[in-house]
Amino acid sequence: MFYRPADGHGLPHNPFNAIVTPRPIGWISTRDAEGANNLAPYSFFNAVAYVPPQVMFASTSSKEDRGDTKDSVANIRETGVFCVNIVEYAMRDVMNLSSAMLPRETDEFEHAGITPAECSEIACSRVAAAPASLECRMTQIVRMEGESNFVVFGEVVGVHLRDDAIIDGRFDITTYQPLSRMGYRDYTVVREIFELSRPDD
């Protein structure tokens, strides 16, 4: 099968959603200029640089009460900061609750029963129980082709690691099993890892 996205694919569901998988989930916490918290998961998320450490996430829809985007991007525009919380398998249900399209004044921490903790380097809440949280200062917001498509880049200025995830000096993801997004409504969980040495190692 071959199709041009501009012409449509003819399938009941968009296959593009299932091609680039699995995708890590950035559970993005923000705070608006008035001090209201927001928390939302994004599967267009990844690390993009080591030195200095940098991450990105993309928001691809909008809300009537936020104009051309959603709460996360709108809050980052106001404050210039955000926190990426890593989602473990055990938190899949509360993560899903926080994905609801809620009014801008709704605190998703409260809505989903998630305990917040204050960040150390930025004025923002983080998910207290997350296996890792990355405090970020926004470096740029890039508008992409298409309606309401924005990519947010941030430099990581603070890192929280849950103590039980550090084994023999390494951050061991098998201790908490990261949740990842597949296509459609499908998710997967990482339970096994293996090593490959590069040819020039």
- Please state how the strands of the largest beta sheet are arranged side by side: 3-2-6-9-10-5-4
Q: Helicity range of the residues?
A: 10-25%
Give the low-pLDDT segments. none
Note the beta-strand portion. Answer: 35-45%
User: Per CATH, what is the topology?
Assistant: Pnp Oxidase, Chain A
Rg from alpha-carbon coordinates: 18 Å
- The shape is globular
Tell me the series of helices and strands, N- to C-terminal: HEEEEEHEHHEEEEEEEE
In CATH, the architecture is: Roll
Tell me the domain tally.
Answer: 1
Give the oligomeric state of the chains in this entry, treating copies of one chain as homo and distinct chains as hetero.
single chain
Number of strands: 14
For the largest beta-sheet, the strand count, sense and barrel status come to: 7 strands, antiparallel
- The CA-CA distance between the termini, in Å, is 39 Å
Query: pLDDT average, as an integer?
Result: 96
In CATH terms, the superfamily is: Electron Transport, Fmn-binding Protein, Chain A
The helix-and-strand class reads: mainly beta
Helical segment count: 4
Class, according to the CATH hierarchy?
Answer: Mainly Beta
